[in-house]
Amino acid sequence: MEMGKQAEKAEGLRKLHKGPRILILANAWDVISARMVEDAGFRRWLRPARGSGGAGISGWSANSNERDAGIVGRMARAVGVPLTADMEAGYATTPAEMAETAREVVAAGIVGLNLEDVTGDDQSSQVETGLQAEKIAAVREASASQGVSLVINARTDVYLMPIGPAETRFERTVERLRAYRKAGADCVFAPGIRDAETIAKLVRAVDAPLNILLQPGGRACRNWKSLEWREPALARGRCAQRWGRREDFFKALSEYQDHSALLADAVPYDEVNRLLGRT
Predict the structure, then answer these.
(1) What tens digit of pLDDT does each residue of 117-133 get?
(2) DSSP characters for 235-265?
(3) Cα torsion 26, 56, 271, 167: sign
């Protein structure tokens, strides 16, 4: 992709976080699902973007031995809208390695990335807050030096794993997300939270665009605005589990319809990972 056009797409995606509507990022895991997302309506309102699901690519794909940047790069070339990638923990343990990952992401034609702060399967692998902030800053500097300032979505898994005593999770999540925002993240992500009260409280405490994972039993897209958030939120459609009705799911998301029926019989992550030996 021509670098100037790629930079424009990155800025377009960044601006969507400040728009009047909640931004929905529907996960795609290969070229055909990416095209389905675009065709289902994500190209028709504002300047939509789409997220690539880390589980769908790195864990459930036939090409799971390939770096995510290469797979998502093919997706980026197949669609006309901005594409942001789930790069897990960045395949990096140091800021210098993280900078190299950022350069690979830019070279693949991608305009944003999701960056986790857990590198393994248990809470002991959570990256120290200061080091994670340095990795985020490295992404910002390295990508900008390439001509495309990547849209950084910084994620913490305090609630998702979950990590530590329940009574301290909110404060620790706020501390981490504030640090990530200060380091250069454009938006933040706290998967694992479902109740509206906690989500609204977190938005006020972090004062940044907040990404929330749509899950079975959660609120429908059309109901999120009732929380009166000070910033629009991102919502990632957890659709990699709905192989048979993916087109209906994408359409429901793009039109802010109730997605809950389409997720009612979705196979849980734990079950899929068990079948693939990722327990």
Answers:
(1) 999 888 899 999 999 99
(2) EEE--TT-STTHHHHHHHHHTT---HHHHTT
(3) negative
Longest Cα pair distance anywhere in the chain, in angstroms?
A: 49
Q: Beta-carbon neighbour count of residue 275 at 10 Å?
A: 11
Residue carrying the six token digits 């500097």: 141
Q: Which domains does the chain have, with CATH numbers?
A: 3-275 (3.20.20.60)
pLDDT at 68 over 70: no
Note the pTM of the prediction, 2 decimals. 0.81
| Contacts for 165 with CB less than 8 Å, ≥ 6 apart | none
Per-residue confidence (pLDDT) for residue 114, from 0 to 100: 92
Helices 95-107 and 68-78, packing angle to 10 deg: 30
Q: What is the DSSP string of 24-59?
A: EEE-B-SHHHHHHHIIIIITTSSS--EEEPHIIIII
Contact 17, 189 (CB under 8 A): no
Q: Please, is 128 exposed, middle or buried when counting C-beta atoms within 10 Å of its C-beta (0-12, 13-18, 19+)?
A: exposed
Angle between helices 129-145 and 95-107 (to 10 degrees): 40
Residues, the chain, total?
279
